[in-house]
Specification:
Length: 474
């Protein structure tokens, strides 16, 4: 059989159609990529596969960028280092900066955080200040220069020498450094308390403590080094107590004020009184009697809930000036307690029955009594003269700043309920504003500065006074 050949070359298989095509054939089938103008290329040995392609790509894309980054790293380190040095320098400056103080009355500059010891050394006080002396209890000198090395005050407060190394200055302080003070030898003290006495002055419807009594002190010293005994006399002067009585004088010239007050309640008529006051739109002050409150706590609570002012009329109807100190305090505390139990309010405002409250009463109870209130106008209702007479007594005697006495008990209640509307109407017609006792005091600016009923209490350093002896009176 004859062999024939064609004049046409055989067809090469398409690489996509024949999966067995070799790498050589694939490489031959691709067209060679053209060179890019200006690009640099690295020659590689002939190889096959993807590793060779990644190598060429890495060279083209990353070569120059990596070189630039590497070139910039030293500059970055320099910048960071400079910033760190600047921060440290700024911190050192801030921590050691100078601040201004006042030193012995003159402007001065010190390092912030400087101690008093450092200021003493830097400003030369160690050489210029003289130490004080060590003294015996009779003021004789035991050792010259044995006292305090310096006298130092900071912002007006004396500084103990043990604190010189710990107190630090931050700027703006007032520092005084002077010669050291004399000090006394260690000594025993025999002290005697000087009790304050009491005086009562003035006239008026309201009594209060205008000056509290503060005890004084005298001392006798015995020195432990010398054995000397010396009477040092009064080392703290006594402050005697003063109780002042005065009435209210409203400041406004074109306004009139008057206070209605009710004693001895609550009673069976209290609610009717409250209804009248509400209808007329006025407030009043009720001085409640302790035993009556215990009998009718609901009425006492109604007074408080209606917004009226409450004081005590003691526990029962007794002349307080006839009682011993213990009996007096019992009368007062039982009355205050009854009111608090019924209303929830703690009061210290007192109207003494019969307006009888002696100097001795003040000395024995001023720590629990804020003020003692009597009256300027007695309505006379307790005499049962009739509603018309009661109204005339009040309206006819009314003056600006007055306190009116009315009685809320089961005997006078009916008469009071009849007279009260006319009293209120007539007072308003005459130009009066009817107020509580506290509101009345507030109309007198000077008086209000002297007495604040809401905060009338004995200071911690005060003491109850004693009655002056007959020898002192002479």
């Amino acid at each position: 059989m004859l062999n024939h050949t064609t004049s046409y070359p055989p067809k090469r298989p398409h690489p996509r159609r024949n999966q067995k095509t070799t790498g050589y054939q694939l490489s031959r089938s691709r067209k060679k990529a053209p060179h890019r103008p200006g690009a640099s290329y690295v020659r590689h040995s002939q190889g096959f596969g993807s590793d060779n392609r990644r190598s060429r790509t890495h060279v083209r894309r990353g070569g120059q960028g990596s070189s630039r980054r590497n070139a910039r790293r030293p500059y970055a380190f320099v910048i960071v280092g400079c910033a760190a040095l600047f921060f440290v320098a700024s911190l050192i400056w801030y921590l050691n900066r100078s601040v201004g103080i006042t030193l012995n009355g003159s402007d001065a500059s010190v390092h912030i955080g400087a101690t008093i010891t450092q200021v003493i050394e830097d400003e030369g006080f160690a050489d210029s200040c003289r130490p004080g002396n060590l003294l015996a209890v009779d003021d004789s000198v035991i050792t010259r220069g044995g006292g305090e090395r310096y006298s130092v005050t900071l912002d007006g407060e004396e500084v103990d020498s043990d604190s010189y190394d710990t107190v630090k200055l931050e700027g703006g302080e007032e520092l005084e450094i002077h010669d050291g003070a004399d000090v006394y030898e260690e000594h025993k003290v025999e002290a005697t308390t000087i009790e304050p006495t009491i005086t009562v002055e003035g006239n008026g419807a309201i009594g209060y403590v205008s000056t509290w009594g503060i005890p004084g002190r005298s001392e006798v010293w015995t020195g432990e080094l010398t054995g000397i005994t010396a009477d040092r006399g009064v080392v703290q002067k006594v402050q005697d107590c003063v109780v002042t009585y005065r009435s209210v004088s409203p400041d406004a010239e074109d306004a009139r004020y008057i206070a209605l007050t009710f004693d001895e309640g609550p009673s069976a008529y209290t609610q009717q009184i409250l209804d009248i006051l509400e209808e007329k739109g006025v407030s009043a002050t009720f001085f409640l009697q302790g035993d009556a409150v215990e009998e009718n706590p609901a009425a006492a609570k109604a007074i408080a809930e209606a917004g009226h002012e409450i004081g005590s009329n003691a526990y029962n109807d007794v002349d307080l000036s006839t009682l011993s100190g213990e009996e007096l305090r019992s009368q007062l505390t039982r009355g205050f307690d009854a009111i608090e139990n019924a209303t929830g309010e703690r009061v210290n405002l007192l109207r003494a029955p019969y307006a009888s409250f002696s100097t001795e009463n003040w000395a024995e109870s001023m720590d629990i009594v804020g003020a003692v209130v009597s009256w300027n106008i007695d309505s006379g209702d307790w005499l049962l003269p009739g509603a018309e007479s009661v109204q005339e007594n009040v309206v006819g005697a009314a003056r600006n700043g007055n306190i009116v006495l009315l009685t809320d008990n089961d005997v006078t209640g009916e008469q009071l309920v009849e007279a009260l509307p006319g009293i209120i109407d007539q007072l308003k017609e005459d130009g009066y504003t009817i107020v509580t006792l506290s509101e009345l005091i507030a109309t007198d600016e000077d008086f209000a500065e002297e007495l604040d009923l809401a905060n009338a209490s004995m200071p911690e350093d005060a003491a109850l006074p004693v009655m002056p002896s007959d020898d002192e009176d002479e």
